[in-house]
Amino acid sequence: MRNALRLSEMLASRLCHDLASPLGGMLNALDVAQHDPSAIGEVVAAGDGLRQRFMLLRAAWGAPGDVLAAPGLRDLVRGMPSGGRVAITIDLQPQGASFGPIRARLAVNVLLLASECLPRGGGVTLRGDPRSVLTATLDGRDARWPAGLSAILSSEAAAWIALEAADHDMNPRGLQAPVTALLIRHAGASAKLQPGAAGQPQVLRLDVSKASAD
Fold first, then answer.
1. If we measure between CA atoms, which residue out of 8, 191, 208 comes closest to residue 99?
2. Could you read off the pLDDT of 21-77 as tens digits, one per residue?
């Protein structure tokens, strides 16, 4: 990857951005609990929310972790910044199939990207075989993939241009599409948008069959 230093700076900024809300919630809960000990339950809940967000972002942007089965992926996505606005369904075949570490990181990034494509809430379904092909579908009002995503997924140069545009516009949410595309390409996998059902958004097809060995 070119310009790795700038990419790391942008990811660090996005990390701080996404952790700020649950951290602020926990600090507020601690402040209340100082005056009302019965509010300690709110502190525990806020701390758990911060932990979930941290675990999700570490899985997305940190070094590849452990093998991840469907239950583990479901636990991770509880930390999504979209919170309860977006319901995420994980349907892996064969049942009991698991992601290797690198494929798991790709799946988490695809889900992060998809969850940002539902501004009014809705659902994301990740379906398929984590060793070969997965699809991500959107369902919700105003659901749409980012403009230019097809080009970003098919061209490394286009992904870097989109990354630079997000940086120039100071748009932390614009980071996820090019980062996802670069990680997919770096892993040796591929992705593209394909037609969805009638009247529905396109489907993101992620081919991990040639991804780097986990």
1. 208
2. 888 988 888 888 888 888 888 888 889 999 999 999 999 999 888 899 999 999 999
- pTM, entire model: 0.91
The CA distance from 58 to 45, in Å, is 20
Mean pLDDT over residues 176-181, rounded? 96
Contacts of 80 (CB under 8 A, 6+ apart): 56, 86, 88, 111, 112, 115
d(CA 174, CA 180): 11
Which amino acid does the sequence have at 150?
A: S
Q: Do the Cβ atoms of 77 and 67 come closer than 8 Å?
A: no
Alpha-carbon gap, residue 170 to 146, rounded angstroms:
16
Is 190 exposed, middle or buried, given 0-12, 13-18 or 19+ CB atoms closer than 10 A?
middle
pLDDT at 1: 45
C-alpha to C-alpha distances, 1 to 32, 72, 81, 124, 182, nearest whole angstrom: 46, 29, 27, 29, 8
Do you find a cis peptide bond into 94, omega within 30 degrees of 0? yes
User: CATH assignment of 65-207, given 3.30.565.10, 3.60.10.10, 1.20.1070.10, 2.60.40.1190?
Assistant: 3.30.565.10
Please compute the mean of the pLDDT values over residues 84-111 and round it to a whole number: 94
Q: Which two tokens stand for residue 10?
A: 């942008």
User: What CA–CA distance (Å, rounded) separates 179 from 177?
Assistant: 6
